[in-house]
């Protein structure tokens, strides 16, 4: 590997931008493809598939064996609301290799006793969210049921390129939320990004089951190809 | 969360800058119940110091030896290991697997 390639891989990873190193394992020839360049690459089908799966692997193209080494950022989950569901959601997401942060200005909720080992920020969304650098590899959920907290949090998420936005609440609650958010400048396209009612419809009842339905929906958004994603939503 | 691959590649860059000969070994294919997935890597310098893992311990010794050759020659190599049932058992794996490991020098032109 050229030193230049290695330096670029490290720089892209530090910036949380995915990068793939393509190696012809017969002769050692190597090139680097940044995520932004995949669409124009002759191997775009193979590259985008491996990136979506977050998996490295060997593919055969035109009789050549090429190893695609995928360096994808660790996915993040930002949970707004240190509520009962979050107590089940945080450890589940961590077991799925997400970096988890819980935000709730109410200190009685955002307590280390309720969330052992999870980074907690007991601040309002306008203070807590900007430093989290919510990016394309971030899933965002608003679970407080309190518009004073959930609404500004969602408005922040709209301004970011996160791959998933979910909000707790029935269809009726969500319709009211849509009206409130639009009154504060959100567009229809923003509202359409919210998965609500949150989670896949698996008949979840308990907080833990709701956590499973949320992580199932987030997983589908992270891993499925665009077409199948719509069906799972 | 500690992202180990990142530390490995950072070490590769740091060692190279410090003037070491450095090789990178990467699992490129696996069959059966291979202990580490494709993309797992090990970085080795000319002292024989290494960081990372390609097999969870079964074949690291052999990979390091081959990597020292690659550092000296500058030519990449493909290694194939059958993780024998007995070895696999010894390192806590319930059954064997096969892995192919690509070893390349870092900093070659």
UniProtKB/TrEMBL annotation, chain B:
<feature type="domain" description="XdhC- CoxI">
    <location>
        <begin position="15"/>
        <end position="82"/>
    </location>
</feature>
<dbReference type="InterPro" id="IPR052698">
    <property type="entry name" value="MoCofactor_Util/Proc"/>
</dbReference>
<protein>
    <submittedName>
        <fullName>Predicted sulfurylase small subunit, molybdopterin cytosine dinucleotide biosynthesis</fullName>
    </submittedName>
</protein>
<dbReference type="Pfam" id="PF02625">
    <property type="entry name" value="XdhC_CoxI"/>
</dbReference>
<dbReference type="InterPro" id="IPR003777">
    <property type="entry name" value="XdhC_CoxI"/>
</dbReference>
């Amino acid at each position: 590997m050229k030193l230049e390639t290695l330096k670029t891989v490290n720089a892209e990873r530090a910036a949380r931008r995915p990068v793939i190193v393509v190696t012809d394992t017969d002769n050692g020839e190597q090139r680097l493809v940044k995520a932004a360049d995949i669409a124009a690459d002759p191997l775009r089908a193979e590259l985008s598939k491996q990136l979506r799966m977050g998996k490295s692997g060997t593919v055969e193209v035109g009789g050549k064996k090429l190893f695609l080494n995928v360096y994808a950022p660790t996915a993040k989950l930002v949970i707004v609301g240190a509520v009962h569901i979050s107590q089940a959601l945080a450890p589940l997401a961590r077991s799925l290799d997400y970096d988890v942060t819980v935000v709730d200005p109410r200190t009685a909720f955002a307590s280390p006793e309720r969330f052992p080992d999870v980074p907690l920020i007991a601040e309002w969304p306008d203070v807590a969210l900007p430093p989290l650098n919510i990016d394309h590899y971030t899933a965002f959920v608003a679970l407080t049921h309190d518009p004073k907290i959930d609404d500004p949090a969602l408005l922040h998420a709209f301004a970011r390129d996160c791959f998933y936005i979910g909000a707790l609440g029935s269809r009726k609650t969500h319709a009211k939320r849509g009206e409130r958010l639009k009154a504060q400048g959100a567009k229809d396209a923003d509202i359409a990004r919210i998965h609500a009612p949150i989670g896949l419809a698996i008949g979840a009842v308990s907080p833990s089951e709701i956590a499973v339905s949320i992580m199932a929906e987030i997983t589908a958004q992270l891993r499925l190809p665009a077409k199948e994603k719509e069906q799972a939503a | 969360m500690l992202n180990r691959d990142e530390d490995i590649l950072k070490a590769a860059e740091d060692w190279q800058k410090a003037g070491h000969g450095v090789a990178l070994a990467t699992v490129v294919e696996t069959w059966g119940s291979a202990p580490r997935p494709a993309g797992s890597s090990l970085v080795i310098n000319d002292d024989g110091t290494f960081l990372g893992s390609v097999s969870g311990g079964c074949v690291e010794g052999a990979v390091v030896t081959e990597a020292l050759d690659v550092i000296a020659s500058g030519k990449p190599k493909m290694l194939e290991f059958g993780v024998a049932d007995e070895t696999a058992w010894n390192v806590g794996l319930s059954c064997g697997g096969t892995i192919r490991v690509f070893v390349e020098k870092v900093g070659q032109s």
